[in-house]
Backbone:
């Protein structure tokens, strides 16, 4: 059997889907990967993932670019001639499905998160819903990463409920993110790991830090993640430099391995506006770290309030600062217990093996 995996970045495939690829190979499946060229594309080649590059504009909707993407994917799919295609992220889900349908190739799609598109009532929102509704008539299955997103699609008539499935995000490799011996830092350390865009709650994090510092709170406030100033909701370079120069945040840059930074933190923070199943929080919980996150879909599936972290109100810097202060005031025993609870939660609900088996079950159900 030949299966193609199509995602909007090679980085995404290499960091989140290699476990699935390995399992498919172990089951005798020939795997092909399709994604835009980036610094991780060569790693896919080295891992014998049959990588094919495809240009893809991930910044917005452009009729010409999206029509070209459909055509490019059509040509790639025709050449590869897979028995099944797995699509991840919005553009492969929509335009990849169109290309595959024209060729009569079955597809399984994955809605990894809705971002803020579905939270607004505007032309882009209406267009996205219309395109999803059209594209999702054709897949054999569509996986959602949380029940809220699935219920939203079903309620709005964008998909038939009988073809939907739930998976716990990309899952987490429990042997890769392992809790270290608990030790609270002398100077309590908060860490936010994210691409630097507004939707991740970066501004709220900075405002919460200002509030805590104005009250004389002594702590480290770290920020790890790639800037994306070209994104229409990206944090500008000037703004980031102001935060650094004013000693508001300790900016850690980017990394290919977040474990060392997670291990050195006392608490992981993610004030995101909406998520699928946030990888950052899975990594934090698997590493035995307590979490402060927003009470929104995705985040509140990983974090249980007062169990493995605290949930705060979305877009509310004051409430975020209060929850961060509550975390800082916990004694070592309470912090350690929250971390242990987080580890138990990912072991029981978010093990990567659960995700892989879900996909393998769906793949086996596709007629040969």
Residues:
């Amino acid at each position: 059997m030949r299966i193609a995996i199509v995602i909007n970045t090679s980085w995404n495939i290499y960091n989140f889907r290699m476990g699935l690829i390995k399992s498919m190979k172990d089951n005798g499946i020939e795997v092909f990967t399709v994604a835009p060229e980036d610094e991780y594309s060569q790693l896919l080649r080295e891992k014998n993932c049959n990588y094919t590059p495809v240009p893809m504009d991930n910044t917005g909707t452009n009729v010409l670019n999206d029509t070209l993407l459909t055509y490019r994917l059509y040509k790639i799919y025709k050449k590869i001639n897979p028995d099944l295609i797995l699509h991840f992220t919005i553009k492969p889900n929509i335009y990849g499905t169109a290309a595959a349908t024209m060729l009569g190739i079955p597809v399984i799609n994955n809605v990894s998160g809705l971002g803020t598109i579905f939270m607004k009532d505007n032309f882009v929102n209406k267009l996205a819903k219309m395109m999803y509704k059209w594209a999702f008539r054709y897949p054999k299955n569509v996986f959602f990463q949380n029940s809220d997103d699935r219920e939203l699609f079903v309620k709005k008539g964008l998909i038939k409920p009988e073809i939907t499935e739930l998976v716990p995000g990309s899952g987490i490799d429990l042997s890769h993110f392992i809790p270290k011996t608990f030790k609270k830092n002398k100077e309590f350390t908060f860490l936010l790991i994210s691409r630097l865009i507004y939707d991740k709650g970066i501004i709220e994090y900075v405002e919460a830090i200002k509030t805590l510092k104005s009250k004389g709170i002594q702590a480290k406030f770290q920020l790890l993640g790639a800037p994306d100033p070209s994104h229409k909701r990206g944090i500008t370079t000037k703004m980031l430099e102001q935060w650094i120069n004013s000693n508001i945040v300790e900016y850690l840059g980017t990394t290919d391995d977040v474990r060392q930074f997670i291990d050195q933190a006392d608490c992981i923070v993610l004030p995101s506006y909406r998520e699928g199943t946030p990888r950052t929080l899975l990594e934090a919980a698997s590493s035995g770290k307590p979490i402060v996150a927003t009470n929104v879909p995705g985040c509140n599936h990983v974090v249980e309030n007062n169990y493995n972290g605290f949930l705060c109100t979305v877009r509310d810097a004051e409430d975020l600062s209060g929850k961060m202060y509550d975390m800082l005031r916990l004694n070592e025993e309470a912090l350690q217990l929250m971390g242990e609870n987080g580890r138990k939660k990912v072991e029981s609900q978010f093990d990567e093996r659960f995700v892989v088996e879900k996909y393998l079950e769906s793949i086996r159900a596709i007629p040969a």
User: Anything to note?
Assistant: The chain has two domains: 2-171+351-365, 189-349. Residues 21 and 31 are 7 Å apart (CA to CA).
